[in-house]
Write a structure and sequence with these properties.
alpha+beta; OB fold (Dihydrolipoamide Acetyltransferase, E2P); 2 domains; six-stranded antiparallel sheet; five-stranded antiparallel sheet; 4 helices; 13 strands; coiled coil; 50S ribosomal protein L7/L12
Length: 183
Amino acid sequence: MTTNNQKEGDSNLDIVRHLLESAEAQIRSAKQLLSENPEKNKKLKKLNLDQKASELNIISEGRIIEGVFDGEMMIGPDKKKYPVPANYASKSKFVAGDILKLTIENDGSFVYKQIRPIERKRLVGSLLFEDDQYKVLAGGKPYKVLLASVTYFKLAPGDTVTVAIPENEDSDWAAIESAAITD
């Protein structure tokens, strides 16, 4: 028979274990950052999503809208932001800068389709959790990633992942493509 004190003690131990694992993952990420040569990373221009979006179209009286994916949402040529379901963006591995087409159905539902993917490059990095956001430290930079991708792969801080980012432009977001899960 267990007592409430034992249950609390077990719960506290689990919390401490989780905190230690998270701290270890952050230390590994910091060491990786220190060991990388900053000069090998060429300077990329910042991805200008608003400019890309302004060059796109709204077709058929607002029923079909082309826009650019920003990592979480689609930005239309009218600068409005349209929500892209995180599980769909994660499954489709959308990368910031991808051009999407949004069709607004008669019942009001949104249907997205990728019409022009941005050129991508892949990096291997380590998952971390900071500032209430999952990120992947890859190529000396932390990239935000969708929570839906983290939960789909059942990832934890410290896990090694492969991410896709825009090849020729700088972005704050990456798409998780695959993962090596540690037990």
